[in-house]
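Tutorial handout. Part one gives the primary structure; part two gives the three-dimensional structure as tokens.
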Amino acid sequence: MLTTRQGIRPLGPADLDAFLRLVALDPVVNVFADYRARTTSLEPRWLGGEMWGRYAEGELVAACHVGANLVPIGADEDDARAFGERALTRGRTVSTIVGPQDAVRSLWHTVAGVWGRPRDVRWNQPHMQLDGEPLVEADPHVRRTTRADLAEVYPACVAMYTEEVGVSPEHGGGAELYRARVLQLMSRGWSFARFDESGRLIFKAEVACASPHAAQIQGVYVVPDLRGRGLASAGMAAVAQIVRREIAPVVSLYVNDWNTPARRAYERVGFVESARFSTVMF
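Part two.
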């Protein structure tokens, strides 16, 4: 039902074309929303939540993904406040608020007094992208992983997630669901790794989501004892080449501003900052 005061209503399959026009205004930043729309046709039962749209003079001007993540899309600060006010009517059901910095900040300030203290807040996360050839030589040993690699890939995914987020993805009985996600990425050809001569995984990265316009990388990880040796730069150069050749023309990611080694590695590869993201985690 349309909320007249805010011009917000849940979107559905009939709104798909309008939604794709909205995300196409910034297709690299909006790759997650674009991917979700194309894979679900905005059907709530496939989304596992809702996609809200905000209208002005009959035109879709902003949206917000409401599932495990609350993600503002094409939203200015006023749009984000409106989405936050709507979110307050249903209580907190999300584990993160993530997206462009100004919109996330406005949305969070709207709900903060009710939703309580977050587990972590990361206000400054450079969003970086690469739309050409890498500036460093790609590691020729990086390859797609398969189910046969699971014994090495899965522990590395858990280690990376725990190091990045501060809590294990297996916490609270989440191991089965997380393992299924790792296998899903493998089956799509979205999981990449390098293994040493003994078969030990020493570098990995995954594609989190992709559209015809862009692919977003997640889970970049180098084993601790081999960090500082250029594995991340060479590995990411290899991943970027494969992704640009076979999945999408632009490769993107976002990184914590305090993670200087990672930022330098991406810059060496040729990634440039194109936006700022923020993440609020519960």
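Part three, for discussion. The CA atoms of residues 213 and 248 lie 6 Å apart. The two ends are 29 Å apart (CA to CA).
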